[in-house]
Amino acid sequence: MANIDWEDLRIFLNAARAASFSAAAENGPENQSTISRRMLNLEERLGVTLFNRTSRGISLTSAGRSILDLADDIARKVRAIEARASEEMDLVGVIRLWVFEGVGGYWLPPRMKDFHRRYPGITIDVECTSDTAPLDGSEADIALSWHRPDLPDAVVFSEGTMTFRPAASIDYLREHAPPRKLEDLLGHRLCSNREFPKDGDWKVWADIVERSANVSYLTNSSLALGQATLNGLGISLQSIGNQIHQPTLAFLDVEGYSPALRFWLSCHKRSKDIPRIRAFINYVKSELFSRHEPGHAFAVE
Predict the structure, then answer these.
(1) CA–CA separation, 213 vs 217, rounded Å?
(2) HSE-CB for 76 with a 13 A CA cutoff
(3) Helix H segments across 132-290?
């Protein structure tokens, strides 16, 4: 039993549903004699009789009913394959995006309205995480991550930096004189993200937080840190890009201190030419790495 043609199974399904070779011919491209001949050939290859043939029409045998269920299942899978192929060829479908929380929570949402105006058939499924994205096609299509992808099939499209500065709410600064020197931060309430680096330029902030007796809020969430700062709980390090969308957030010049984090935009090589993936990557590159936006948090290196 070999070389079963999907077209024969398709014709079998049409004939079984119509309960007549002539009715199946009216609903499909094959004529009645072609359908009859191909069904005889299919029965011969399978070694079973699929139809009872009478002058009043056809009916399925028990073997035909069993194969009908299997053929229906195959048809559903073929339709799913065709739909998935259509999604990959067209600007429709889901894009699974892995991003660090600052981008997923602050930067991305204000910009999605314009993207969806251009591409209304695309859904962005956003996973906010500091974990390394599994760019093997299993869970993520595109990643914006703090870690340069080291998988051999990962394609890096852009590399940049996110710059931070000490910041506080305007209400907090109405009650507290702004710090001028780094040592002055020890006299203020502080909020911090436990996942900030503790080496390089970041060691300065890590040491201040460790020495401070006024740490009011610690978290592993960029969004939570931003809300704590906006609600006057203390001074924190914030991405300078937040200044545009948070008018009640004031950035402070404290001896010019402004540590930075590197990040990478990447995807799996087999996904990079799928139209919807390419459209989103190009959009993110144009928005994320633009140099004209005042106070922008990102810069290409």
Answers:
(1) 12
(2) 5
(3) 170-175, 202-211, 222-230, 242-245, 275-288
Residue 170 and residue 194 share a domain: yes
Residues 55-105 have pLDDT tens digits of: 888 999 999 898 898 888 888 887 777 666 655 667 888 999 888 887 788
Q: For strands 249-251 and 154-169, give the pairing.
A: antiparallel
pTM of the model: 0.63
Cα(first)–Cα(last) distance of the chain, in Å? Answer: 61
Q: For helices 6-18 and 62-89, what crossing angle results, to 10°?
A: 120
Helix (H) or strand (E) holding 126: strand 122-128
Q: Is residue 45 a contact partner of residue 38, using CB atoms and an 8 Å limit?
A: no
62 and 145 in a single domain? The answer is no
Residue 97 sits in a domain whose CATH number is 3.40.190.10
- Average pLDDT over all residues of the chain: 85
CA distance 280 to 14: 41
Q: Which of 75, 72, 8, 16 is nearest to 42 (CA)?
A: 8
* Same domain for 148 and 268: yes
Q: Are residues 97 and 127 in the same domain?
A: yes
235 DSSP assignment: B
Token pair for 184? 């002055």
152 and 205 in a common domain: no
Residue 10 in tokens: 């398709």
Low-confidence residues in the chain, pLDDT < 70 = 1-3, 82-89, 136-137, 243-245, 288-301
Range of the domain at 201: 161-260
Centroid of chain to Cα 290: 21
